[in-house]
């Protein structure tokens, strides 16, 4: 984490005599260090045949603030390379505030473009991930981008729910998985975003607190605007968990890699299989068996892209003895074969929004 902070400080842009940011280089290694701080698994695929972590991926002004489950990434400048950056995002909310330019990305097998709508002065967008999801960000050499991104993990929000009304709202926020919503920024949101965009890497503890305060204020406004979009569409949470069961999925996830079967998971959690099944169904509206099966496929999906596992290795990781059965289950779950998925996430030149 300290190395990433130092790298970010080295990349801080200098200011010219008019107060404008000079076009400082953001190198691939610095970008990877920034992402590593958040704990998000990621991999960058350059468009060329040779990968060089010292290559410049952007020139402009950029900053990154991480506050333990809440992160803010600001960037404004020119993308210097065509590449694809793949990340396995945890359950959470992602908000983008786009001042200028456009952003191409793929999420949950669907392709999107930010900046294609006439929303002044800032195009705001947000999506919720109720489960881990693969996202690919495509950059285009010569493209100009001026944006701010806030990502907050679902667990960060859940830990701050102190009332039933809060739990209801959080459930509603995550009712629709990986579906972007768009709206125009109001004056207060624009002001907060510009203040946060102007901040450099914090030098002192008090500066870190000021950054976190601004980030939370902006997050609050984005959450309210996003929730208003859901309410307008009459989105309702499928189920309301009790306070003690709110993090049940997270507890099951923690046991997946060490426990092969449902009996082992229940034992590790200190409950009977029947109790685990009953609670899980009541809270999430699905069986724990179906959830574990899909979650293992999601883990294998990430390993195919992030770790370069073969299809046979990924099949074993997901609990399948035969690769053909794994491929069939994978295609049913994600509407794409493992081989097609790997190829699609490595394309960076010919992106067309879906």
TrEMBL record:
Q: What are the alphabetically sorted keywords of the record?
A: DNA-binding, Transcription, Transcription regulation
Q: Does the UniProt entry include the keyword Phosphoprotein?
A: no
Query: What is the recorded name of this protein?
Result: Helix-turn-helix transcriptional regulator
Q: Where are the transmembrane segments?
A: none
Q: Where is the composition biased (Basic and acidic residues)?
A: 1-25
Which part of the chain is the HTH araC/xylS-type domain? 246-344
Q: Does the keyword Protein transport apply?
A: no
Q: Which Pfam families match?
A: HTH_18 (PF12833)
PROSITE patterns recorded:
HTH_ARAC_FAMILY_1 (PS00041), HTH_ARAC_FAMILY_2 (PS01124)
């Amino acid at each position: 984490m300290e190395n990433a902070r130092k790298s970010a400080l080295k990349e801080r842009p200098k200011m010219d005599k008019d107060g404008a940011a000079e076009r400082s280089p953001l190198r691939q290694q610095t970008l990877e260090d920034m992402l590593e701080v958040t704990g998000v698994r990621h991999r960058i695929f350059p468009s060329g045949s040779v990968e060089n972590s010292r290559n410049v991926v952007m020139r402009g002004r950029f900053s990154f603030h991480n506050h333990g489950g809440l992160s803010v990434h600001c960037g404004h400048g020119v993308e210097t390379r065509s590449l694809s950056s793949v990340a396995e995002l945890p359950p959470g909310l992602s908000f983008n505030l786009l001042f200028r330019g456009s952003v191409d990305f793929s999420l949950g097998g669907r392709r999107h473009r930010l900046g294609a709508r006439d929303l002044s002065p800032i195009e705001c967008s947000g999506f919720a991930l109720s489960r881990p999801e693969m996202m690919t960000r495509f950059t285009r050499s010569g493209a100009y981008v001026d944006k701010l991104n806030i990502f907050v993990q679902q667990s960060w929000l859940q830990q701050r729910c102190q009332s039933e009304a809060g739990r209801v709202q959080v459930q509603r926020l995550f009712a629709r998985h990986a579906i972007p919503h768009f709206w125009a920024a109001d004056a207060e949101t624009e002001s907060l975003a510009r203040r946060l965009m102007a901040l450099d890497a914090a030098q002192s503890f008090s500066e870190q607190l000021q950054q976190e305060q601004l980030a939370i204020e902006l997050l609050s406004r984005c959450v309210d605007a996003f929730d208003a979009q859901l309410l307008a569409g009459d989105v309702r949470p499928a189920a309301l968990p009790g306070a003690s069961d709110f993090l049940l999925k997270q507890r099951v996830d923690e046991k997946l890699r060490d426990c092969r079967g449902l009996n082992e998971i229940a034992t590790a959690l200190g409950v009977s299989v029947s109790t685990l099944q009953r609670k899980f169904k009541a809270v999430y509206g699905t069986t724990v068996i179906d959830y574990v099966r899909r979650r293992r496929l999601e883990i294998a999906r990430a390993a195919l892209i992030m770790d370069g596992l073969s299809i046979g290795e990924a099949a074993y990781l997901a609990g399948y003895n035969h690769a053909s059965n794994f491929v069939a289950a994978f295609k049913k779950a994600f509407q794409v074969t493992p081989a097609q998925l790997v190829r699609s996430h490595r394309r960076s030149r010919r992106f067309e929004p879906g």
